[in-house]
């Protein structure tokens, strides 16, 4: 079964590296930028996980195959560059969802293997799944998906909890992996398809009213429009 986990880890690296390549293409980066985004997405989360758990050296230093897989993914993507541009906008979130599910399982499994508690294992699974995507989005000057109202980290946490629970019940490893993958991927894909989101708590700043502004403002868009109207009236005077 260690071989199955290893190949799942490799599959996660490929999928996440591909999501980094797609975002690099849409951000008009050169091949070096593509490689950087693919690398931080593919191994960033696992690197942070190993550093937190005290694993020395980190996994890709022990097994450079991960680096070669990332390089091969970027090379193949460069040859199919024109096809990447034709991919729909929805392909990146879907590819990211598969990477999230795979890495959540791998991170949770490795934390339990090292003797961590169930709570720590869930957090390590979530970190492995979301950290690489966060670094990728920051480098591409995007708000990371985990910081938006989307169901993202919640899906990873749910998948990690399922894996830890089945591990505690001494379920077969294949069942634990399949159930965790199914929960994480199912929640994330459902959120993408039905636009599910967590509630957002935010203050809306309303500009002070003037004599020309009698109607109450209900949204930031209306507030901006009213400010533009007031400025035009002042210029006419």
From TrEMBL:
InterPro entries with a match to the protein in the record: Gly_transporter (IPR005115)
Primary residence: membrane
Record's keyword terms, sorted: Cell membrane, Membrane, Transmembrane, Transmembrane helix
Spans traversing the lipid bilayer: 6-25, 32-53, 65-84, 91-112, 118-139, 151-169, 175-204
Record domain Glycine transporter: where: 6-78, 94-167
Superkingdom assignment: Bacteria
Region of interest (Disordered), ranges: 212-237
Subcellular localization: Cell membrane
Membrane topology: Multi-pass membrane protein
Range of residues in the leader sequence: none
Gene Ontology cellular-component terms listed: plasma membrane
Family the entry assigns: Belongs to the UPF0126 family.
Protein name in the entry: Trimeric intracellular cation channel family protein
Lineage: Bacteria, Pseudomonadati, Pseudomonadota, Gammaproteobacteria, Oceanospirillales
């Amino acid at each position: 079964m260690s071989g199955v986990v290893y190949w799942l880890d490799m599959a996660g690296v490929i999928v996440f590296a591909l999501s980094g390549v797609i975002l690099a293409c849409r951000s008009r980066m050169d091949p070096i930028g593509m490689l950087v985004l693919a690398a931080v997405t593919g191994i960033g989360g696992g690197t942070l996980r190993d550093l937190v758990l005290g694993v020395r050296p980190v996994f890709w230093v022990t097994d450079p195959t991960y680096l070669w897989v990332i390089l091969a993914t970027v090379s193949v993507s460069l040859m199919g560059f024109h096809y990447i541009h034709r991919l729909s906008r929805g392909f990146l979130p879907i590819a990211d969802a598969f990477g999230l599910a795979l890495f959540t399982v791998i991170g949770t499994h490795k934390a339990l293997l090292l003797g961590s508690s169930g709570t720590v294992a869930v957090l390590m699974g979530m970190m492995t799944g979301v950290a690489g995507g966060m670094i990728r989005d920051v480098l591409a000057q995007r708000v990371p998906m985990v910081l938006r109202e989307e169901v993202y980290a919640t899906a990873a946490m749910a998948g990690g909890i399922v894996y830890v629970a089945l591990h505690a019940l001494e379920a077969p490893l294949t069942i634990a992996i399949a159930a965790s993958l199914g929960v994480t991927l199912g929640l994330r894909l459902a959120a993408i398809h039905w636009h599910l989101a967590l509630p957002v708590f935010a203050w809306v700043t309303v500009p002070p009213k003037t004599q020309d502004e009698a109607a109450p403002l209900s949204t930031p868009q209306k507030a901006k429009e009213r400010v533009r109207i007031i400025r035009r009236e002042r210029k006419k005077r």
